């Protein structure tokens, strides 16, 4: 019975490594095996074969479930299971569609598990048939044998390679690149899993989750932040001082959603046809198409190389906190167990601006309880935390009764109802900061009568204003005076049909409904702009728009960009929009001779807070934020193909570190975008990776051990 569990666990381990492409068994096999033996011994102490069989089988079943979860996460994101995901089961269940169900893998795992199950049943029947007494298995011989095996395994369990290094070297390059670092953090999941195996990996997660900081490590953390460089100078520092700030995170937005229906990775095909308000933010109110025209607006910045590889809640955290917990959930530190004295969170964007007299609001056009935002966000510094289900009318009645997933209200209508939170009516008394998250462009992308923007815009996206009119409910319907044969497609939809009708016809329909959501978002942005102009504060409001991740539902972005779904390290897949409309940039752009600024530097949502602080003239401790201002020189530069580039690296919570030229999951294997190995580039890349991982580790400890009150430069 003992061997039934041990062999079963190892068989499932081999299956895990095979389907994830990690090899055959973990590098530290005996470490993993020691934990399997330990579990086996605990159950072995139960003096009942049936009970042993049931418990062993339950554990093996859980292991099988974890295999499937890991396969799904790895296929979609390149991610692996961690315990912080348990809190998100409800959110994951709501968002799941058949596109994320891998039936062939399910059948293979069921077959494997049933085979193991049958072997266990045969063993159990043999034990009962032969009337084997459980006490026989506690003979001196068996106990000595098991203890001997356990000791062999434990020699690896306590191997010196896993002993925690001296705490004084916590930020040393040797420590960051060591297996000790992997064992004591959850920062590089794929590499940790490959080295320690399922049982070792999960044991490490538990140990990391339960650990508590000692006096020495806490002092090191505090010293690290108190010694941080205070950033307070750049060529744009303070050009937007005192401005209102609106940050809009756009769900699953791609640059091609603002284009003409074709894909241009250099974003030269931006169009005003379907997204005029986005276009006006970039180029000004004159909807011109000639980028050399002097009438083009010159107060915007386009982050051409903005990247993300994170789920919605994490990308949101980057834009609000400048970081996100690794290995545990935000609700663990900012939820119901929040202690204001210990968890000050003074470094978050809303808290910093609130301390400067700003009104701070968070607005989300879906259920505010999703990801427990109702618990966490008030503690992150928001005065108002508003969602679709918490929005009430002047009489206190709930405006939206239906808050189910994929039952999206028309985004423009929601923003009209929530406009007094997005643009507060007390704007004359104090400036405001608003973080607004839209959901209209969230998948899945199919016809849905519960989707307000699907119903409003699908005719418009196909045929345009010449063939459509608005009905009484503000939906675009086909003009009854038009004959079917007279209808024409918009330029956007015609380009889509020309490109994909023969090779992938379903993509044409999915892009249509995706674009409906994008138009809904554009309408909502227009409502905000109109309100700012009505209050005459548009010219002293800084607006930042960014996407959380690429459109992964239905593999939409993969298919549109022509990227294989298995190519998780493709940098181009993770290129998404970020745009800043900054009144203060007008003078800067004129001085540089540009109508608008295209920032060519590799950047991410980590850089949002430092960049906004730079524009607002807010001094900040650089150690508290993973990213840097887009106007700050990088720590390292390199030259590739005659072009000088900043060495900036993105760390993904879902797995991997990368910049525009190199990608790695584990600090051992590197993928070069130009497919030519470059040792010098790899060396500089690793130096920046070291800086990033050190900072992430310290910020993680700061959040976990609640050391905010001891940090002077927060």
Describe the model:
- By secondary structure, the protein is α/β, with parallel strands linked by helices.
- It folds into two domains: 2-159, no CATH class; 230-710, Alkaline Phosphatase, subunit A.
- The protein is built from 23 helices and 20 strands.
- The strands form six sheets. It has an eight-stranded mixed β-sheet with strand order 6-5-7-2-10-11-3-12, with helices on both faces.
- The termini are far apart.
- 46% of the residues are buried.
- The model is unreliable at 160-169 and 291-297 (pLDDT under 50).
Percentage of β-strand residues: 5-15%
First CA to last CA: what distance? Answer: 57 Å
Q: Percent helix among the residues?
A: 40-55%
Strand count, sense and barrel status of the largest sheet are: 8 strands, mixed
- Specify the structural class: alpha/beta
**CATH class categorisation of the largest domain:** Alpha Beta
Spatially, the strands of the biggest sheet line up as 6-5-7-2-10-11-3-12
- Count, helices: 23
Please name the fourth-level CATH homologous superfamily of the largest domain: Alkaline Phosphatase, subunit A
Compact description:
The chain has an eight-stranded mixed β-sheet, with helices on both faces. It has two domains: 2-159, no CATH class; 230-710, Alkaline Phosphatase, subunit A, CATH 3.40.720. It is 43% helix and 10% strand.
């Amino acid at each position: 019975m003992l061997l039934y569990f041990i062999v079963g666990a190892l068989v499932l381990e081999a299956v895990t490594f095979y389907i994830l492409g990690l090899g055959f068994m973990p590098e530290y096999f005996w470490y993993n095996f020691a934990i399997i033996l330990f579990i086996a011994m605990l159950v072995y102490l139960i003096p009942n074969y049936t009970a042993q069989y049931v418990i062993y089988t339950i554990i093996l079943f859980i292991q099988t479930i974890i295999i499937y979860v890991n396969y799904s996460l790895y296929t979609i994101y390149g991610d692996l299971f961690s315990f912080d995901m348990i809190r998100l089961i409800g959110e994951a269940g709501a968002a799941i569609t058949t596109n994320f169900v891998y039936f062939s893998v399910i059948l293979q795992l069921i077959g494997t598990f049933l085979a193991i199950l049958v072997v266990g049943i045969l063993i159990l029947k043999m034990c009962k048939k032969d009337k084997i007494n459980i006490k026989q298995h506690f003979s001196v011989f068996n106990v000595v044998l098991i203890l001997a095996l356990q000791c062999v395994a434990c020699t690896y369990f306590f191997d010196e390679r896993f002993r925690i290094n001296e705490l004084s070297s916590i930020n040393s390059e040797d420590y960051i690149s060591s297996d000790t670092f992997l064992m004591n953090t959850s920062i590089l999941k794929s590499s940790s899993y490959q080295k320690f195996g399922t049982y070792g990996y999960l044991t490490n997660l538990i140990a990391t989750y339960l650990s508590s900081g000692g006096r020495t490590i806490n002092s090191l953390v505090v010293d690290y932040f108190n010694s941080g460089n205070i950033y307070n100078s750049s060529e744009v520092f303070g050009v937007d001082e005192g401005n209102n700030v609106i940050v809009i995170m756009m769900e699953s937005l791609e640059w091609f959603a603002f284009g003409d229906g074709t894909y241009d990775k250099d974003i030269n095909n931006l169009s005003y046809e379907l997204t005029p308000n986005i276009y006006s933010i970039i180029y000004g109110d004159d909807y011109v198409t000639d980028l050399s025209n002097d009438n083009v607006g010159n107060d915007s910045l386009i982050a051409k190389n903005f990247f993300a590889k994170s789920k919605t809640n994490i990308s949101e955290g980057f834009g609000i906190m400048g970081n996100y917990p690794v290995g545990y959930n935000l609700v663990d530190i900012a939820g119901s167990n929040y202690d204001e004295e210990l968890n000050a969170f003074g470094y978050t964007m809303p808290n910093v601006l609130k301390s400067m007299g700003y009104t701070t609001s968070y607005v989300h056009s879906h259920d505010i309880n999703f990801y427990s935002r109702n618990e966490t966000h008030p503690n992150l510094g928001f005065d108002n935390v508003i969602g679709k289900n918490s929005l009430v009318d002047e009489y206190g009645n709930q405006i939206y009764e239906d808050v189910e997933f994929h039952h999206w209200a028309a985004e423009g209508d929601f923003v009209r109802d929530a406009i007094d939170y997005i643009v507060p009516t007390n704007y004359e008394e104090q400036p405001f900061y608003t973080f607004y998250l839209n959901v209209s462009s969230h998948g899945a992308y199919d016809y849905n009568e519960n989707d307000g923007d699907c119903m409003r815009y699908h005719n418009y996206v196909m045929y345009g204003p010449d063939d459509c009119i608005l009905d009484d409910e503000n939906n675009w319907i086909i003009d009854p005076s038009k004959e079917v044969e007279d209808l024409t497609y918009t330029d956007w939809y015609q380009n889509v049909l020309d490109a994909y009708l023969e090779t992938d016809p379903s993509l044409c329909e999915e892009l249509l409904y995706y674009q409906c959501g994008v138009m809904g978002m554009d309408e909502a942005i227009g409502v905000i702009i109109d309100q700012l102009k009505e209050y005459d504060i548009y010219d002293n409001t800084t607006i930042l728009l960014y996407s959380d991740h690429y459109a992964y539902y239905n593999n939409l972005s993969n298919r549109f960009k022509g990227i294989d779904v298995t190519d998780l390290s493709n940098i181009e897949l993770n290129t998404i929009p970020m745009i800043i409309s900054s009144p203060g940039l007008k003078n800067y752009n004129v001085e540089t001779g540009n109508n608008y600024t295209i920032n060519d530097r590799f950047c991410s949502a980590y850089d949002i807070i430092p960049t906004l602080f730079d524009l607002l003239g807010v001094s900040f401790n650089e150690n508290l934020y993973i990213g840097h201002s887009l106007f700050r020189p990088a720590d390292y530069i390199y030259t590739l193909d005659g072009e000088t580039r900043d060495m900036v690296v993105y760390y993904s919570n879902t797995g991997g570190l990368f910049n525009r030229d190199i990608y790695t999951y584990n600090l051992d294997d590197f993928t070069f975008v130009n497919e030519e190995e470059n040792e010098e580039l790899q060396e500089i890349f690793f130096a920046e990776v070291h800086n990033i991982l050190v900072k992430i580790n310290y910020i993680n400890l700061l959040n976990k051990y609640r050391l905010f009150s001891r940090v002077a430069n927060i």
